[in-house]
UniProtKB/TrEMBL annotation:
It comes from Streptomyces collinus. Residues 74-114 are annotated as: Disordered. This is Amphi-Trp domain-containing protein. Coiled coil: none annotated. InterPro entries: Amphi-Trp_dom. Residues 94-114 have a biased composition (Polar residues).
Amino acid sequence: MKDLTFEQKRSLSRQEAADQLTALADALREGGDAELDLGPGTLGLRIPDDLQSELEIEIGGGEIELEIELKWKTAPARATPPRTETRTEKPQRKNTPTPAGRSRSTQRATAKKA
């Protein structure tokens, strides 16, 4: 199973196709993190220094199909750092005002009698 698949099919003018390939070429030239504008959205990729490529041309049925495929390994998954146990603190009591003339201990004693 693939981690992610993106496919887009649309009609382009020759100029639009050239612009799309130029943007891809610029991203490849820059390397590292690249963002490609793909019409309705942007795709972010991490492009390494070394790639594998495949060029395929098929002619038949009144059409020419040109496929340019670039492959590279994904970065190894980062190990999640172990969770450290933290000592939970007791929730602090809310300071509620005491009625005038009564202390908290007097209130507790009165509540126990009731």
